[in-house]
Protein backbone atom coordinates (compact mmCIF):
# COMPACT_ATOMS: atom_id res chain seq x y z
CA UNK A 1 0.00 0.00 0.00
CA UNK A 2 2.82 2.43 0.91
CA UNK A 3 4.69 1.61 -2.29
CA UNK A 4 1.66 2.20 -4.51
CA UNK A 5 0.87 5.50 -2.77
CA UNK A 6 4.52 6.57 -3.13
CA UNK A 7 4.46 5.62 -6.81
CA UNK A 8 1.25 7.61 -7.34
CA UNK A 9 2.75 10.73 -5.72
CA UNK A 10 6.01 10.32 -7.64
CA UNK A 11 4.13 10.09 -10.94
CA UNK A 12 2.10 13.17 -10.03
CA UNK A 13 5.21 15.18 -9.13
CA UNK A 14 7.28 14.21 -12.15
CA UNK A 15 4.40 14.36 -14.62
CA UNK A 16 3.39 17.87 -13.58
CA UNK A 17 4.94 20.60 -15.77
CA UNK A 18 7.57 22.80 -14.14
CA UNK A 19 5.22 25.79 -14.14
CA UNK A 20 2.65 23.95 -12.05
CA UNK A 21 5.06 22.20 -9.72
CA UNK A 22 3.60 24.09 -6.80
CA UNK A 23 1.72 22.41 -3.97
CA UNK A 24 -1.63 23.36 -5.58
CA UNK A 25 -0.62 21.73 -8.86
CA UNK A 26 0.50 18.64 -7.01
CA UNK A 27 -2.77 18.52 -5.01
CA UNK A 28 -4.95 18.78 -8.13
CA UNK A 29 -3.06 16.09 -10.02
CA UNK A 30 -3.19 13.71 -7.03
CA UNK A 31 -6.91 14.35 -6.51
CA UNK A 32 -7.57 13.54 -10.17
CA UNK A 33 -5.74 10.23 -9.88
CA UNK A 34 -7.32 9.09 -6.60
CA UNK A 35 -10.90 7.76 -6.68
CA UNK A 36 -13.47 9.60 -4.60
CA UNK A 37 -15.56 7.70 -2.09
CA UNK A 38 -19.27 8.39 -2.46
CA UNK A 39 -21.42 8.08 0.62
CA UNK A 40 -25.14 8.56 0.52
CA UNK A 41 -28.41 7.10 1.60
CA UNK A 42 -31.98 7.25 0.52
CA UNK A 43 -34.25 9.02 2.92
CA UNK A 44 -37.09 6.98 4.32
CA UNK A 45 -40.17 7.95 6.23
CA UNK A 46 -42.83 6.25 8.28
CA UNK A 47 -46.25 6.34 6.62
CA UNK A 48 -49.41 5.63 8.56
CA UNK A 49 -52.42 4.57 6.47
CA UNK A 50 -56.07 4.62 7.48
CA UNK A 51 -59.42 4.24 5.80
CA UNK A 52 -63.09 3.55 6.44
CA UNK A 53 -64.76 0.27 5.56
CA UNK A 54 -68.46 -0.64 5.38
CA UNK A 55 -69.29 -4.33 5.76
CA UNK A 56 -72.64 -5.98 5.05
CA UNK A 57 -74.03 -9.42 4.52
CA UNK A 58 -76.98 -11.69 5.17
CA UNK A 59 -77.62 -15.31 5.95
CA UNK A 60 -80.41 -17.84 6.24
CA UNK A 61 -81.37 -19.16 9.68
CA UNK A 62 -82.50 -22.77 9.25
CA UNK A 63 -85.51 -23.82 11.28
CA UNK A 64 -84.41 -25.54 14.49
CA UNK A 65 -80.84 -24.21 14.16
CA UNK A 66 -79.26 -21.79 16.60
CA UNK A 67 -76.36 -20.68 14.38
CA UNK A 68 -75.83 -19.00 11.04
CA UNK A 69 -72.71 -18.27 9.02
CA UNK A 70 -72.64 -14.92 7.25
CA UNK A 71 -70.12 -13.70 4.66
CA UNK A 72 -69.57 -9.97 5.15
CA UNK A 73 -68.19 -8.02 2.21
CA UNK A 74 -67.09 -4.45 1.66
CA UNK A 75 -64.30 -2.30 0.32
CA UNK A 76 -61.97 0.43 1.50
CA UNK A 77 -59.31 2.76 0.19
CA UNK A 78 -56.58 3.68 2.66
CA UNK A 79 -54.35 6.73 2.49
CA UNK A 80 -51.96 8.89 4.47
CA UNK A 81 -48.98 11.25 3.92
CA UNK A 82 -49.22 11.08 0.12
CA UNK A 83 -49.36 7.27 0.04
CA UNK A 84 -52.49 5.26 -0.77
CA UNK A 85 -53.79 1.83 -1.66
CA UNK A 86 -55.94 0.68 -4.51
CA UNK A 87 -59.47 -0.29 -3.54
CA UNK A 88 -59.18 -3.10 -0.99
CA UNK A 89 -61.91 -5.73 -1.29
CA UNK A 90 -62.73 -7.35 2.03
CA UNK A 91 -64.56 -10.58 2.72
CA UNK A 92 -64.85 -11.92 6.26
CA UNK A 93 -67.00 -14.77 7.52
CA UNK A 94 -68.65 -14.68 10.91
CA UNK A 95 -70.54 -17.40 12.78
CA UNK A 96 -73.49 -16.10 14.80
CA UNK A 97 -75.08 -18.15 17.58
CA UNK A 98 -78.66 -17.20 18.32
CA UNK A 99 -80.68 -17.74 21.48
CA UNK A 100 -84.29 -18.83 21.12
CA UNK A 101 -86.39 -15.78 20.31
CA UNK A 102 -83.37 -13.49 19.80
CA UNK A 103 -84.09 -10.77 17.23
CA UNK A 104 -81.10 -8.40 17.54
CA UNK A 105 -77.44 -9.30 16.93
CA UNK A 106 -74.33 -7.29 17.77
CA UNK A 107 -70.97 -8.80 16.78
CA UNK A 108 -67.29 -7.83 16.47
CA UNK A 109 -65.42 -8.72 13.27
CA UNK A 110 -61.62 -8.67 13.07
CA UNK A 111 -60.42 -7.65 9.61
CA UNK A 112 -56.86 -8.19 8.38
CA UNK A 113 -55.79 -7.71 4.76
CA UNK A 114 -52.45 -7.53 2.93
CA UNK A 115 -52.36 -4.53 0.57
CA UNK A 116 -50.07 -2.89 -2.03
CA UNK A 117 -49.12 0.72 -1.29
CA UNK A 118 -48.39 3.50 -3.80
CA UNK A 119 -46.78 6.88 -3.16
CA UNK A 120 -47.86 9.45 -5.73
CA UNK A 121 -48.49 6.66 -8.24
CA UNK A 122 -45.20 4.78 -7.59
CA UNK A 123 -45.31 1.33 -5.96
CA UNK A 124 -43.46 1.48 -2.63
CA UNK A 125 -44.28 -1.81 -0.93
CA UNK A 126 -46.90 -3.90 0.80
CA UNK A 127 -48.20 -4.00 4.33
CA UNK A 128 -50.91 -5.46 6.49
CA UNK A 129 -53.94 -3.34 7.41
CA UNK A 130 -56.31 -4.38 10.15
CA UNK A 131 -59.16 -3.22 12.30
CA UNK A 132 -62.05 -4.26 14.50
CA UNK A 133 -65.45 -3.62 12.96
CA UNK A 134 -68.74 -3.69 14.91
CA UNK A 135 -71.63 -5.14 12.92
CA UNK A 136 -75.23 -5.42 14.01
CA UNK A 137 -78.56 -6.43 12.57
CA UNK A 138 -81.93 -7.99 13.14
CA UNK A 139 -83.49 -11.37 12.51
CA UNK A 140 -86.50 -11.05 10.22
CA UNK A 141 -88.29 -14.35 9.65
CA UNK A 142 -85.51 -16.75 8.71
CA UNK A 143 -83.08 -14.09 7.47
CA UNK A 144 -80.36 -12.29 9.41
CA UNK A 145 -78.87 -9.14 7.88
CA UNK A 146 -75.75 -7.55 9.35
CA UNK A 147 -73.99 -4.30 8.55
CA UNK A 148 -71.42 -2.09 10.19
CA UNK A 149 -68.45 0.15 9.58
CA UNK A 150 -65.12 0.98 11.12
CA UNK A 151 -61.57 2.08 10.57
CA UNK A 152 -58.70 0.05 9.12
CA UNK A 153 -55.09 1.02 9.88
CA UNK A 154 -51.65 0.02 8.71
CA UNK A 155 -48.17 1.46 8.35
CA UNK A 156 -44.86 0.98 6.57
CA UNK A 157 -41.52 2.66 5.87
CA UNK A 158 -41.29 4.28 2.44
CA UNK A 159 -37.91 4.94 0.79
CA UNK A 160 -37.96 8.21 -1.07
CA UNK A 161 -36.46 8.23 -4.57
CA UNK A 162 -33.15 10.10 -4.99
Would you kindly provide a written description of the structure presented here, covering whatever features stand out?
There is one protein chain. By secondary structure, the protein is α+β, with helices and mostly antiparallel strands. The protein has 2 helices and 8 strands, in the order ααββββββββ. It has 2 domains: 2-33, no CATH class; 44-159, no CATH class. α1 (2-15) crosses α2.
Task: Describe, in short, the structure shown.
The chain has 162 residues and is α+β, with helices and mostly antiparallel strands. Helices cover 15% and strands 58% of the residues. Helix 1 (2-15) crosses helix 2.
Count of domain modules = 2
Low-confidence stretches: none
C-alpha end-to-end distance: 35 Å
Strand order of the largest sheet: 1-8-7-6-4-3
What is the residue-averaged pLDDT?
83
User: Considering DSSP H and I runs of 4 or more, what fraction of the residues is helical?
Assistant: 10-25%
Strands, total number: 8
Number of helices: 2
Shape: rod-shaped
Radius of gyration from the CA trace? 33 Å
Q: Strand-and-helix sequence, N→C?
A: HHEEEEEEEE
Largest sheet: 6 strands, antiparallel
Strand content: over 45%
Query: Could you say which structural class the secondary elements and strand pairing correspond to?
Result: alpha+beta
Task: Please specify the SSE layout and strand pairing.
Layout: H1 2-15, H2 23-33, E1 44-60, E2 67-76, E3 79-80, E4 83-85, E5 88-97, E6 104-119, E7 122-140, E8 143-159
Antiparallel strand pairs: 1-8, 2-5, 3-4, 4-6, 6-7, 7-8
